[in-house]
Structure formats: C-alpha cells, structure tokens
Amino acid sequence: MTDPFLHVEAADVYYGASQILFGVDLAVEQGQTMALLGRNGAGKSTTFKMIAGLAPPRRGKVALAGQGLAGRPSYRIARAGIGYVPENRQVFPDHTVDDNLIVAAKKGPRGDHHWNRERIYEVFPILASMKDRLAGRLSGGEQQMLTIARTLMGNPAVLLLDEPSEGLAPIIVQAIGELIKTLRGMGVTILLAEQNMHFCLGIATHATVIDKGQIVYRATIDELRHNENIKQRYLAV
Amino acid sequence: MNLEALASCLSSSACAVTQISTALIIGMLLFMVASGLSLIFGVLGVINFAHGAFYMAGAYIAFFTYQATSSFLLAFLAGALGAGLIGVIFERFIISKVYGKDILMQLLVCYAIILIFDDLVKIIAGPEYKMMGMPDVFALPPLEFAGGFVPAYYVFMIVASLLIGAMLWLAIEKTRIGKIIRALAINPQMVGALGINTTLLYAAVFGVGSMLAGIAGSLAAPTRTLTPGMGLSILIESFIVTVIGGMGSIVGALIAALLIGFTRAFGAIGFPLFVDGIMFGMMAVVLIVKPSGLLGREIAR
Q1: Is residue A87 in a domain?
Q2: How far apart are CA A154 and CA A142, in angstroms?
Q3: What residues contact residue A9 under an 8 Å CB cut-off, 6+ apart?
Q4: For chain B, what are the domain ranges?
Q5: pLDDT category, B299, cuts 50, 70, 90?
Q6: DSSP code for B271
Q7: Which residue(s) pair with A192 in the sheet?
Q8: Whole domain around residue A38: which residue ranges?
Q9: Residue A1 covered by a domain
Q10: Does the pLDDT at position A1 exceed 90?
C-alpha cells in the first residue's frame, strides 16, 4: 500500500514546555474533503499550524506526496503545495482585494497554475464585484472568501481550511459551505478543521476526530453521521 | 534673534534663492536618509540607530572611488551599492539576531556598530577631515533663478533625490514586490505561509534602506567635509524627520525633510541660536498632537 497523499505520522507538538499534540496520525487522499472535528481547544488549529510549519513537531513526520515537510520553513512548505488558510481571516486589511490576490500568486508544486485572478473571479463572483475595495472594509464572510481565494492563488495541492464558519451568520456559513462544495467538485483536496459538525456533515467526504491532542476516531462522513456514541462523546456542545 | 536680517533676505530674491536652494539640498539629503530609516522601521519594526553609519560608509566609498577613477557616476554607484551591501551583511549577521528582542538590545547592538564603523574609518581613511571636491562633470557655471544663483550640482542633487524618492514610492505602491513588502509589514507570518521567503525579503528591504543612506552619503560627499562620526548629526535630524513625517511614510518623510531644511536654511539667518530648539520643538508638538506623525500609519508588529 502506498503512503497517503498528505500524511501526518505520530506527531508531537509542544508550546514551550506544554505538550499540545500527542502522536497525531492523519491521512488525506487526493480529492478527499477531510473534516478534522473536535471541540474548542482539542488541537485542530495546532495540527494545521504544524502541517503549515508554523508550529513544527518535536517528533513525528509530515509528508505531502511522499516528500517530508516537518522542520522546513513555512514558505518552503507552502511552495511544496500546502495551502494554509488560517482562522480569523487574516486578510491584508490595507490592500485591495485584487492586491491581496496579487501578493499570493505563485505556481503550484508541479509548476501548475490553474488558479489566476480571472479564474478566482469566476469562482468567487462576489470578490470580482469588489476587487478595488480595501480588504479591511469587507464583511466577515467576504473576508473569509478572500482568504480562501488568496490561498488558492498559490495553486496548492492541499487546501487547509481552519474554521471557515467561525463567527459568521448562518446564511454566510451556508454560502461558504457551497463554495467548499464547488471546490470539492473541482477535485481540490481539502482538509477542513471545524467544531461545527453539522456544517461538515454536508460537505466533507471523510472525518477524523481529535480530542485533547489525540486522534480518537477516523471514518467516512456517513459512518460518523450514524455513530451517536462518537458524536455524543467528542462533538456534542 | 535677527528677524530684520531674515526679512531683508526674504525681500532680496538673490538671497532668498540661495537660502531656498540650501534648504532644498539639506531637505533632500535628509529625505534620502530618513526614507531609508522609515522603510526599515515600517517593514522590519527595527529602529536602526546605526543608519548614520551607512550614510558615512556611502560618503567614504564614493570619496575613495572618485579618487581612484575620477568618475562621479562610478563614485555615486559604488557609494550607494556599497552601503546597501554592507546593510545586507549587517542585517543577516547582526541585527536579525535581535529581532523581537528588547529595544535596548537593538540600541546597544547599533551603538556598537556605530563605534566600530567610526574606528574603521579612522583606521582606513585616517582621523582627519577629507574633501572630495566638486566633480569635473559639475564644473559648470551656476544656474540663474530669479536673480539668484544655484550651483549646477545642487540642481542635480535635488532632481536626483526626487527621482529616487519617486521610484521608491512607485515600487512600494504599484509593483507586486512592493505589495508583498507592505503585506510583510502587517503580517509576516501570513506572508510566509503564502510561500514567500520572508528572511530574504527582510534582508533585501534592509539593503534598500541602507542603500538610501549610502545614496545620501555619496550625494553629500562633494559638498561636505568627510569625518569619522559624520553619521551622527544626520541621524539625529533624520529621526526628527521620521517622527514628524510618520514612520513608514515616504511622502511624510519628504514633507518633514523639507520642513527641517527650510527651518535650518532660514533659521541660520533669522534665529541662528535657536534652530535646533525649533526643530526639536516641532517634533515635540507632533508627538503631542499626532504621535503617529503627519502621514504615519499605526504599525502593528
């Protein structure tokens, strides 16, 4: 059996002296939309930061298409194909929408460039209508779309979405969900961190559950849907 | 106070033109030095107390290149690029070690560099004053403006500084690399996560900032005496300029540099004993009324 496309193996992450992640294993295959589910503080964001190189693991491996990433600087990890969309919508507020995209433009890991501004504006028509507006003036939902679009400009092999629904009105959450489904339909490989399980049930193909820094469950999204025990123990609010 | 002398100078166009040209060259040199200081602070969040050393390095490198080649163009390029290169080395091996550290630590490192540079100049060039002299290409009759005379070199200095300032502004506002640099100033971690080598970019920005100081040094070389320690007085005035204009703003640096230039040139006639007092007074007023400076943004880092 070959290695998974994005593969995290037995990764331990520390912030100073305190350990946050304990032997995390994670596998995402090409074309999957993998939900990483867990409560607030379970270790989802830290897992993402570890993959993106912002919180390197003290032990363990991170690999994309067989290429080891752990310990490399974050810009090299991005160039290798990890497209990290952080939580809290970190747009460049004093740049226009267009300039946010321009800053992030790069070729993908295999020299591919499906994504350019024209393509982005086709898939995100709402951004096309406000491309000269300062990003800091956009609404929360628009900023969330912009951060996703911005990362896509780098033609990533895997898109890491950290809590894209956080703090948004239900109707906007629905729009973000539709957008992720569109990207999934285009074959984009997605790893999606969420505490909002219902949001994920509609859009993910697979699920991994994390609790207290450890992976406790992995299955297809349908199996999770019917597993009341897991939902009760780890995901109920 | 001698306001009568000031009034009589302003009423004579010959005297006014001379003082205006003096104001402009003081202003332009300060503009070049301060825009480098401001760029480095705006992007890297480091107050480069050693910036004057790069001004001095540019002046001395231009001096020696001119001695060796008799070409002002080569002297200018060597002064600018030499200071930029020293800046990159300084950033990579020294100042990058104290990023994010206590500002006192940065101050201490920069102060050490100032002392080392001054001593290096004494060892290499000697402690005595040096005069580069007016380059042959500028041995032209002075240009006449409204009954006053301005040396051709002054006109060149003013035009060259404005052009370089305009290029810098365009590069930062309109080019992709400029957009990346502005993003770097706001959120370096995000810029790195988008696949951009921030370490390299920091070194490049520091190099360009140092190069601006070197440009000022090589432009000043034909008009000023070169001494070890010449970096210090221009550094202090550049800090006044960046505080008044706003850290990180090139247009603000230009306006404030001209303000200081005019204060110095006309103050020398009207209130020679109080020029420094006025300059620091303006800085104090700006700090009280608008601490971010005339055109400064609040910079988060």
Answers
A1: yes
A2: 19
A3: A25, A60, A61, A62, A63
A4: 3-289
A5: very low
A6: -
A7: A35, A161
A8: 6-235
A9: no
A10: no
Whole-prediction pTM value? 0.91
Number of domains in chain A: 1
Q: Which two tokens stand for residue B261?
A: 């230039």
Let me know the angle formed at the C-alpha of A53 by A49 and A54, rounded to the nearest 5 degrees.
55
8 Å CB contact between B295 and B251? yes
pLDDT at B301: 36
Whether A92 sits inside 8 A of B193 (CB atoms) is no
Q: Quick check: A58 and A18 in contact, CB under 8 A?
A: no
Place of tokens 């961190």: A193
Q: What residues of A are in contact with residue B176 (Cβ under 8 Å)?
A: 102-103, 105
CATH number of the domain where residue A99 is located: 3.40.50.300
Q: Is 1.10.3470 the CATH classification of the domain at B3-289? A: yes
Among the partner-chain residues A94, A102, A154, the one whose CB lies closest to the CB of B195 is A154
Which amino acid would we find at residue A47? T
A169 domain-assigned: yes
Chain B residues closer than 8 Å to A54 by CB: 189, 193
User: B278 with B259: CB under 8 angstroms?
Assistant: no
CB-count exposure of residue B41 (10 Å: 0-12, 13-18, 19+): buried
**pLDDT tens per residue, range B208-237:** 999 999 999 999 999 999 999 898 889 999
Taking CA atoms, what residue in A is nearest to B177? A103
Contacts with A84 from chain B: Cβ below 8 Å: 193
Tens digit of pLDDT for each residue in A7-66?
999 999 999 899 999 999 999 999 999 999 999 889 999 999 999 999 999 999 999 999
Compute the count of residue pairs across chains A and B with CB atoms less than 8 Å apart: 58
CA B235 to the chain's CA centroid? 8
Residues B149, B17: contact at Cβ < 8 Å? yes
If you count them, how many residues does chain B have? 301
Does residue A135 sit within a domain?
Answer: yes
**pLDDT, tens only, B132-169:** 888 888 888 888 888 888 899 999 999 999 999 999 99
Contact at 8 Å (CB) between B85 and B196? Answer: no
ipTM score of the complex?
0.92
